[in-house]
Design a protein that fits this description.
249 residues, mainly alpha
Length: 249
């Protein structure tokens, strides 16, 4: 047991994590393609037409996974940021920086697809609904994290400043999740819950879960690719970077 923990700890430095990430990236891209094709096929061609919303409901196969990932990535980003802040580890700050753009993309997709869904259902592209407003705040938190880090030249100081912002913003995640329960909102309640049976057809549920897995695999693949680039940029003067085969060729 202790040997296993020690083996995992050896990947906590940029030097050892860089090659590990390189080996994992192709697998996560492959899983992204597999789950994505399966999820889109079920969601757009197999799942039945919704009795109330018609064909327009199919936007949920992108909207719901993007919304889930926008919240989950923020929590993971805040975890890495807190780890870096507490233990002063270089890789933790790099991981937080790598996750932020993908989280911002997911929040943007959530808002954009929500607007496309809301226009035919509510008759408007946007309302200052509690769920929508808190998701918009999440998008701005991602942009603020990225902008704050970019504004500080020293990478370690930038990581610490970004970590404080990320941790403060965590309070917004439960607000997003519980907004439909805490306030009277136009946004419908959760169709999938850990404590209740899903309120949708099995094929719809499978399509949504497969798309969620595709978004998850995509987020990991992109974040690992980005963190490798960050490692090369921040560690460019280290001797081990100069010895990398891909930089010699």
């Amino acid at each position: 047991m202790s040997n296993g923990i020690i083996n995992w700890f050896k990947f906590s430095s940029p030097q050892t994590f860089y090659p590990l990430a390189g080996k994992m990236i192709p697998w996560f891209w492959a899983l992204t393609a597999i789950f994505g094709v399966a999820g889109l096929t079920i969601g757009f061609f197999v799942a039945p037409t919704d009795a109330q919303q018609g064909e327009g409901y199919r936007i949920i196969f992108v909207h719901v996974p993007a919304s889930w990932m926008s919240m989950f990535i923020y929590l993971v980003m805040a975890f890495w940021a807190a780890l870096g802040l507490g233990f002063n580890t270089r890789l933790s700050g790099m991981m937080a920086s790598a996750l932020a753009p993908t989280g911002a993309l997911m929040a943007f997709l959530s808002l954009w697809t929500g607007a496309l869904w809301g226009k035919p259902m509510w008759g408007t592209w946007w309302v200052w609904d509690a769920r929508l407003t808190s998701e918009l705040i999440l998008f701005f938190l991602y942009l603020g994290f990225i902008a704050l880090q970019s504004a500080i030249d020293d990478a370690r100081r930038a990581d610490k400043a970004g970590a404080v912002l990320a941790l403060v913003g965590v309070i917004n995640i439960p607000i997003i999740y519980f907004s439909v329960k805490w306030w009277n909102t136009l946004h419908q309640g959760a169709s999938v819950s850990l404590t209740k049976s899903p309120s949708m057809a099995q094929t719809m549920l499978w399509g949504m879960l497969l798309m969620a897995l595709a978004f998850w695999m995509y987020s990991i693949a992109v974040s690992l690719t980005r963190v490798r680039a960050i490692i090369l940029e921040r560690e460019r003067h280290a001797g081990w970077v100069e010895e990398l085969p891909e930089l010699k060729s």
